[in-house]
Amino acid sequence: MGKTKKVVLTPPDLERCQAKKPNGVNFLTLGGRPEMIRCTDKPTVIAKEIKPGKDGLRGSMSLCTHCLLKFMTQMSPSQEDYAFEEIGRDVAKIEHGKEC
Known about the structure:
It is a single chain. By secondary structure, this protein is α+β, with helices and mostly antiparallel strands. It is built from 1 helix and 7 strands. The protein has one helix spanning 65-75; strands at 20-22, 36-38, 45-49, 60-63, 82-86, 94-95, 98-99.
């Protein structure tokens, strides 16, 4: 019987969005290296995986409104795969990539 690898998941950050996005540097800009940086905006929702992913784990992360809209357009999540929970303040309701 194989050993089980213990994985520690990072809990959602209620102060800062956890999405990563490009830093804007590319081969045409002078200096710097292209890399992914963490978004600095305040989160509005927590996205939770309902079903375990390919790694067998169910994760969650905080997202700002802009990153949530990007997530909705890139991932096209179904209601069976993800649940979205508003962080305790008045924010626009988000439904399938559109602000209501």
